[in-house]
């Protein structure tokens, strides 16, 4: 869970706002899962 939270914060820091940030966050989470397992 910390990974997803960290990724979300990272995207927020970059300046992404709105649904775009959410979509990127979800994509990043899936990539993390694939790499993690």
Automatic annotation (TrEMBL):
Domain (Heme-copper oxidase subunit III family profile) spans: 1-25
Instruction: Write the protein's name.
Output: Heme-copper oxidase subunit III family profile domain-containing protein
Topology class, membrane? Multi-pass membrane protein
GO annotation, cellular component aspect: membrane
- Keywords assigned by UniProt, alphabetized: Membrane, Transmembrane, Transmembrane helix
Give the primary localization class.
membrane
Q: Which locations, inside or outside the cell, does it occupy? A: Membrane
Gene Ontology MF, one: cytochrome-c oxidase activity
Q: Which InterPro entries match?
A: Cyt_c_oxidase-like_su3, Cyt_c_oxidase_su3-like_sf
């Amino acid at each position: 869970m910390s990974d997803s939270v960290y990724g979300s914060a990272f995207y927020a820091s970059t300046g992404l706002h709105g649904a775009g940030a959410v979509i990127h966050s979800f994509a990043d989470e899936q990539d993390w899962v694939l790499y993690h397992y």
